């Protein structure tokens, strides 16, 4: 389901899991303050959406929301991008240019992938956060700004601080509040709602494409660990919309077949640190599903007696599966 009580202009955050609901609720509380916040999570989990939600729910909602992808800007150009430059400050500086901080004045600056900043840029960023002022590259005029800074990190930032590759004082400036966006493998309940959301959205571009996802595809999607997270789900659905030749997305249309459903199940269980007992239950349920409830056939596949299978099935069902 999309984020409830969504205001016009807010990003759509689709979830059903308790883990993601907790992250959204914390973001909504953070929005009521003007504190800096650090959003942790793997690539593709939706950290930028959470940052935008914080901005849209806060008092700066009517001011700019500016995103800086720290990893995608060359180091030699980063200072100019962040703080702007004066004419003649470097080869391509043919005129004065305002930087991202000036563009975000009064609003929010989202630094995506803060771990990519070099030590000199970390020092300059710290000064802006402390003094709310800076000079453009090649300039002497002090520019004052009022900007809320949100940042994200894909790595373990405290470990980078310990390794002295990230400034400790900057870390504490950025990390007044920490939010963690869990990877999709930790919230399998969100996979199908996300897939159906993207299916609806992509119909605008592919109006003659599929309109449903088959039961087999749904089961496999839920078991698959999705290393690329939400972004991979979106790409998988778009790929299926293109290659499917009917109105239903089948498993064969999805680019996720790394082994069969059971292999995907094991990979997903390992990535989620699932106990052996829980994995056994999941495996037995899947075999029973594949054999359409035929316990004799399932017992042969599992390598156990029919009596043992019945006892295990009863335990999983709370003591109540008839023979």
What can you see in these coordinates?
- There is one protein chain.
- This protein has 323 residues and is an alpha/beta fold.
- It folds into 3 domains: 18-182, P-loop containing nucleotide triphosphate hydrolases (Rossmann fold); 184-267, Helicase, Ruva Protein, domain 3 (Orthogonal Bundle), CATH 1.10.8; 275-323, Orthogonal Bundle (Arc Repressor Mutant, subunit A).
- 45% of the residues lie in helices and 11% in strands.
- It contains 14 helices and 9 strands.
- The strands form 3 sheets. The protein has a 5-stranded parallel β-sheet. The chain has a two-stranded antiparallel ribbon with strand order 4-5.
- The radius of gyration is 25 Å and the shape is elongated.
- Mean pLDDT is 85; it is low at 319-323.
Keywords:
single chain, two-stranded antiparallel sheet, Helicase, Ruva Protein, domain 3, five-stranded parallel β-sheet, Arc Repressor Mutant, subunit A, alpha/beta, 3 domains, 323 residues, elongated, disordered C terminus, Rossmann fold
């Amino acid at each position: 389901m999309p984020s409830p009580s969504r205001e016009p202009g807010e990003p759509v955050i689709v979830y059903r899991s308790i883990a993601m609901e907790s992250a959204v609720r914390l973001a909504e509380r953070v929005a009521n303050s003007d504190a800096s916040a650090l959003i942790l999570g793997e690539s593709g989990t939706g950290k930028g959406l959470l940052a935008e939600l914080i901005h849209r729910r806060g008092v700066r909602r009517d001011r700019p929301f500016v995103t800086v992808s720290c990893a995608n800007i060359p180091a030699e150009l980063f200072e100019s991008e962040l703080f702007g430059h004066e004419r003649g400050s470097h080869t391509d500086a043919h005129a004065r240019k305002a930087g991202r901080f000036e563009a975000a004045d009064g609003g929010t600056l989202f630094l995506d992938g803060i771990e990519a900043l070099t030590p000199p840029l970390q020092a300059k960023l710290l000064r802006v956060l402390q003094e709310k002022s800076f000079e453009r590259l090649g300039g002497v005029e002090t520019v004052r700004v009022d900007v809320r800074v949100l940042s994200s990190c894909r790595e373990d930032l405290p470990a980078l601080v310990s390794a002295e590759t990230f400034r400790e004082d900057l870390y504490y400036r950025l990390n007044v509040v920490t939010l963690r966006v869990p990877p999709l493998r930790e919230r399998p309940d969100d996979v199908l709602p996300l897939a159906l959301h993207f299916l609806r959205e992509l119909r605008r571009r592919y109006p003659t494409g599929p309109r449903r996802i088959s039961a087999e595809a749904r089961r496999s999607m839920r078991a698959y660990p999705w290393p690329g997270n939400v972004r991979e789900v979106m790409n998988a659905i778009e790929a299926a919309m293109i290659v499917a030749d009917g109105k239903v997305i089948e498993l064969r249309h999805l680019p996720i077949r790394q082994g069969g459903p059971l292999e995907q199940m094991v990979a997903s269980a390992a990535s989620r640190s699932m106990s052996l007992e829980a994995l056994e239950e999941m495996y037995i349920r899947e075999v029973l599903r594949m054999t359409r409830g035929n316990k004799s056939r399932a017992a042969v596949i599992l390598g156990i007696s029919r009596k043992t299978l019945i006892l295990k099935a009863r335990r999983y069902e709370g003591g109540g599966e008839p023979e």
